[in-house]
Design brief:
Length: about 110
């Protein structure tokens, strides 16, 4: 691949999320603790851009809601999809200009928040 960025290599935080299928914790995804757990929040701006490019699967330059839903699977193939509630909360937190998708700058700001 030569991208110099391997999201599944970042750590097992996604697996932690997967291993709690308990309905009580279904809406437990917390992007802040996740970014810090996988170490993304301490990565360079360049690495965060590379991570963004991986999550932006259709290369539209934005993370749309369907890509956000599958967000955890970029880190672990066996990770669960985010619930609608989690996806909407995540989108709301990242989409500062309100266009319904997360751009690279918005993503970087979210990771560093
Ligand atoms: Ca996209």
């Amino acid at each position: 691949m030569g991208m110099g960025m391997c999201l599944p290599c970042l750590g097992g935080a996604a697996d932690d999320v997967v291993e709690t299928p308990d309905p009580v914790t279904a809406d437990s995804f917390d992007y802040k603790s996740f970014f810090s757990k996988v170490g993304l929040s301490s990565k360079s701006a360049d690495d965060i851009k590379k991570a963004f490019a991986i999550i932006d699967q259709d290369k539209s330059g934005f993370i749309e809601e369907d890509e956000l839903k599958l967000f955890l699977q970029n880190f672990s193939a066996s990770a669960r999809v985010l619930t609608d509630k989690e996806t909407k909360a995540f989108m709301k937190a990242g989409d500062t200009d309100g266009d319904g998708k997360i751009g690279a700058d918005e993503f970087a700001a979210l990771v560093k928040s």
